[in-house]
Amino acid sequence: MRYADGGGLTAQARARREQVRMQAADLFAQGATDAEVAAEFRISRMSANRWRRTWQAGGRQALMSKGPGGEVCKLSGAQLEDLQNALDQGPAAYGWDEDQRWTLARIAELIRERFGVSYTVSGVCYLLHGLGWSGQAPTRRAVERDEEAIAAWRDEDWLEGKAQRRAWTPGSVSRMRPVKA
Prior knowledge:
The chain is mainly alpha-helical. The chain is 52% helix and 0% strand.
């Protein structure tokens, strides 16, 4: 499962795209060219040509939506809920005491042990994305963080290190011909 909403398109958006392809099929049946279909629906001529070839090979049925793309999720709804609860408990609950962070490899191992299902690291990333988890974003700031020191550095030292741009002057990339004044 790549995204929670089935590949980025809602059911209504897929239906709308399918309706456009059906209208294009009607135009093809009336003898419209690829260029005319492309102009009518504001698509590329390559897409219109691909739709025409699909329509010629399999008719209107071939242009119908095949549903959301992507791999089917290997876990059931109950298993996904169980995984969510397991992740909320934290890595220490499953033996990773030395580092209190979930990694994709750890989550893949947890899924394999709990549910007997194998996921690749990138597959775990897509699965978590679908569950609403984001990348590594700290939940809290470091205790040692000194906001006043950061503000002072930003106002004083950072501005000094930031060099001013030179004004534009004519130049030449050629070593043989110097710049004319």
